[in-house]
Amino acid sequence: MALISIIEDFHPLGNAKLLSRAEALKPMLHHTIREPIGGFRLKDRYSPEASEIVLGQLPHMSMGKGENLCLDFGEHLVGYLTLELSYAGSHPDAPAFLKLKCAETLRELSENSQEYDGWLSHSWIQEEYLHVDVLPCRLVLPRRYAFRYLKITMMDTSPKYKLIVRHAECRTENAADWSRVAPLRSGDEQLDRIHAVSLKTLANCMQEEFEDGPKRDRRLWLGDLRLMALTNAVSFRNFDLVKRCLYLFGGSRFPDGRVSANVFTKPAVEADDTYLFDYALLYAVTLEEYLQDTGDNEALDDLYDIAMQQVEYALRTLDDTGCVGAAAVQDCFIDWCDALDKTACATAVLLYALRYARRLARRKNDWSQANFLLQQHDALRRAAMARFWDEGQQCFVSNGQISAASQVWMTLADAPSPQQSRAAMEKAAALTDGPRMGTPYMHHYYITALLRAGMAAEAEAHLRHYWGTMLDAGADTFWECWDPEHPDASPYGGSIVNSYCHAWSCTPAYLIETHLRPKEDTIK
Length: 524
Ligand code: RAM
Known about the structure:
This protein is α+β, with helices and mostly antiparallel strands. It is built from 15 helices and 17 strands.
């Protein structure tokens, strides 16, 4: 189902003080120059069949009409491309007409973008048609790309000349300071590789904000921020960037004070007119975790009220069963899964957020608020158990549906007793039908719920299987969507717009550091 919210005459509430703090926290970006490490030609424009080429021969290889050249930069990069172009034959008597396509994966490289007909804009596909009037030339492309492969297709030349690509390079850009992390060398090859790829995923999403994906949406989303912040805390430890993002969400909000699901930062900071119930609640969670890491009292003072507002807004959505009402459930994200009944999840996320909000209130010495939140928490927990817990089946049932997501969020919210959590998560692990978990975002929470239910072996096995099969499928940064049984799945109506370096997929490093191995020597 499309996630599109359009509010006419939407005028976000700006807070100049918070925005100027966010501005002052803009990170320094790091740059490197990367050149291709290999190249090949696809047999025809959309074929996966390729013939290898030797890079050293590039200055002598000329491309006529219809021919292509694919350059492999050897790893996922985010940055700006420069091409040095020349020609063979007579003086060019017509412009060179080129198509450039940047792709994060091999599959994306050979897909025909004209066949995409999904609900997200076609404009996310990283391809350009351009005319080059004067050869030789140095072409500096203005857009930032996220890619490993660059395909250059010669759309047209003239019979008098052919194009030569003499040189290509990428000036990479991100805010990750690699001197702060050491690679994991546990001796377990799979775990080490999963750890490395998850850090690379996070690094390439660390731009002026934590972006959800450097190919798409290139934007700060709240649910993604929470998971990036967790992984950042055990790796790059760029807490100023987390702080900046919290201030950006606080600095531009819905007119009634709700935080938006995502924020634009260019040309100026502006909340998107999309509200997601669960994401807004994660604001209090992310703030509390940031404060645990930093003890930053300035941020507590500046952002406390905003975090409380989100929780109080959510508490006003309870219906006569004492659980989150249907309209608010509609605004819940949870996972890309149309078949999922999110009623139990919405209530559980609120319960979960209440726990963090109480910690914030205690931190702030706001005892009456802490007390209020405790009462709300206990009432909501009782209502959730009464409505969703099925004693006979020993699991949560949401409007007749048993899903992993409901067991996960109720377990994370500590709604059930430890024994009940265990039963619920055993049920989740044994499910063979019903809604499938679609994203690494959901799989992250699934693993943390297994851990909370005391199922560490299952958690580790799941992490290895889920992220390990992504590696086997060729990931060198982790992907936005992955279902090992449906590798082509996309929530958007076509995998060509999927993001293959996606923030919410970066958490294995966090899970490994905090749960799967003793805490020594990986963090400098
Ligand atoms: C996708 C984004 C982002 C996610 C939202 C809900 O479009 O890429 O990662 O947070 O959806």
